[in-house]
Here is the input.
Amino acid sequence: MIATILGGIGIFLIGMILMTDGLKSLGGDTLRRVLTHFTGGTISGIASGFVVTSLVQASSATILATIGFVSAGLIGFNRVIAIIFGANLGTTSTGWLVSLLGFKLSIGLLAMPLVGVGALLMLLTRGKKASSGMVMAGFGMLFVGIATLQGGMEHLAAKIDVTAFPDTALFGRLLLVLIGAAMTIAMQSSSAALVTTLAALHSSALTLDQAAALVIGQSIGKTSTAVIAAIGASVQAKRAALVHIVFNVVAGGIVYVIFTPFLAAVKAVCAAVGIVDTALVLSAYYSALHLFGIIVMYPFIPELGRLIERAIPEKGSHLTRNLDASVASVAPVAIETARRTVIGIAAVVMESLRRILNAEASFRDIADDIEEAGLALRETGRFLSRVRSQPESSQIHEGHQSILHSIDHLDRLVETCREVDEMREIAHREELRRIALEQLSRIEMVVRWLQGHTESAPLGVVEAMSQSIAGIRRTQRVELLARTARGELEPEDAMGRLEAMRWLDRLAYHVWRAIYHLSEDLREQLPVPPGTSRPL
Here is the structure.
């Protein structure tokens, strides 16, 4: 009997993991669009958190995506709070799914073929089809697990006396809440704990009042996952985890205090709409608990946001503080976060170049900024090494490659900035200094775009700058070598000038290519340079 119950829980958990991973893979970009397009206000933030979590059956996926959005600067922290509130409400959809299908409909004949077909798709296909197979296999295993768990609970119900469990008076209720929290912590899944409770209730191993007290504990217990995830995480992840904890503890605590009238109100509403099955009433109670928490805490969202931001202040490098390893599993969000981080790094590099070229600073003055930018690029590269995008998701995959290209060009640009000898050569040669000032003065436009002062990237301008310097370098190379052959220049002098021109050429080229790959608006409209299918 115990083995059957444990096996049912295990099969259910495996099914949830497979189905959730498949849904996240299928809807990764959809998840990003829904969360970013429907978070203009607090109400829409709650709605989007609820919808996305209900669809992917995982509040963690919604919360991780949200962390990435706030890190990338797409949404404010108050919107994050609203989405997390909605995500908590969205987790209650699992109870409705199980109550309506798992106990009401006999889908045993359908579940096993779903597992079989889904497993074959996972093994024999790739991309979207393999993800669809994961969803099918997970969905089938979900109900195989429920059926197994239900069978074990029926045997358990025949052997136990319901009155042996704690009653729902104040202290008995507290013991049930603690048991519910322990169930969630042990299983590391509030959904599995809820389904176990639903199965026990459906098999008459528990009364509705006892199950309702367990559900309060399970709601509070699921914050343990957030506590574990926050250890060693980024500032944004810790803030999101704290919101998750505060919401569930406050909502559960208030419902615990008003337990009897709250449960009576839920029963009355269910009776009014014709819901009499105890499993459905418990699912309604679980949803009502979270909805009540949202209603109570909604007016205090701004104050909660300020309190949490003061409790967990920002720290670390301002260039890479938004990179959160936990977000790397949500590719669209991770890529956008990396893109905005690289734009910030590029702004530092370009501003340093501008200051040098305008004789506003020496290399010694900007050395610290250049070194910080170099370290930030390496950290961003390590962050992106955890991100995976598939060619089937063409837009996401293209964006992923573009960020990697921009990091490569910026890294080369940082190395170019460290070549002090070439800088000195240009500073001491009037004709070279004039070329640098005339051509590279356009970097001012790049800096303005990177800092957000203009909407469109000056792609055409920097491309023309790069091509112009490349043309000057080719022309001067011929002239300098001819003058050296006539004895007008010493070979060492000519080689120094040529190396300085090559330095200018490299610098302009990497500026152009870095901006090209960071821009989303005009990149596809640009002409392809001769001799290449796609510029790198």
In short: Residues 521-536 have pLDDT under 50 and may be disordered.
